[in-house]
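User: Hey, my collaborator sent me this sequence without any context and asked if I could get a structure. I don't really work with proteins. Can you help?
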Amino acid sequence: MKWKAITLLGLTLAVTVCGRAQATQATQGRQDTQAATASCPRRAPAVHVPPAKARAGQLVRPGSVAATICQYGQSGKGKFLARLVLPDAKASAGFAAVINDSGPVSPYARRCDSARNRLPYSQYVIFRYRTGAPVRVRVTLSDCSLAVFNGGKIYEFTGGQIDADLFTMATLTPDDRGKLVPDVLGLRFDRAAAAIKAAGFTVSLDGAAIDKSARFGDVIFTSVPAGLRVSPADQQLGLVLAVRPAPACKAGQLALTYLGGEGGAGNDFGSIVVRDVSRRPCRLAWPLRISGLDTAGHRVTATVKEQVSTPAILSPGVKVNKRGLPQVGTLTVQVVLHAEYRDDPKTGGMCQPNWVVPAAWSVRLASGGQVSVANADSYDPTKLVASGGLVTCRGDLEALQPAGYANLP
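Assistant: No problem. I've predicted the 3D structure and written it out in structure-token form, which is a compact way to encode the shape of the chain:
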């Protein structure tokens, strides 16, 4: 279970290419790099709170050959701090896919994208093309665990671990004496992970984005761009994989695994991992409705409604090991459940006499049908009950929002 975005960051990003042939390629490469390193504005472009009926749509058109990420401090009227360059089509196209794969701005996102919620950084991303005008995307940083993108009259937002990756990029400072980030774009996850570890970095699977120009499962984005030398603080690389649009998952395509969490201080955690066991990818439509059931199949806990970060496309044919962990590099969704077990809010005393430990969890799909799994994990080292299942006080339950792609060892 990856808690970096929750426990370490607490912050997320809000975002407002023999002989003559070789010579031609080299010339084109220099032109692309020159285009990418075009000057950044001296001050951060103004950002605006999305209107009540903000228009959603594709922010970055296809075919970019390079991108410049201009970094600013909000204090002092957004003074320019640094510039980060993605000098080739492969890197800029992946970054564009991550930005484009977002959703319409919600009321919550509009409230969060206000001056009082903004962090002391902002960005301005310039995507450049061989022909045609550049595309500019305004970037703001917020403390509301979401991401807002603004390009002209189009606004979109996203959430999840990719936010943490973009935050890393927003505050990245190259170090000439640091380790060199390898280029793993276009590789499958296992090959990319091997190359990253050989270079002395750690690696994580941070999500996916719809990119029709790449193979399903190829790496299209890294939280630290290739070719940079970075300090130890930036030597964990988060990878984003390419996916394609897919139909909504049906109950018969899915299987669940329950994994115990680390209970303590009166709180118990556990997670439900949703995987696709069919031959084709599918999209996990939300909201998911999750309830605890007794042995007779009756509901004994509160029902929680869970959102899922986009795009929620699952890898097909995912298998698990004896521990219940899915194959490394596959795309599964992890729902994190939380319950208080020690204190009873109704009596003010201890809740143990009123513990409710479900026999199973039921997950109802927005697309129809339900899938269930036993509330048990014999491998949980901190289990409160013999089954290793989640313990609740009187059936009270909540889920951490939103659910995202699982990043499990």
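In plain terms: Residues 1-36 have pLDDT under 50 and may be disordered. You can pass these tokens on to your collaborator as they are.
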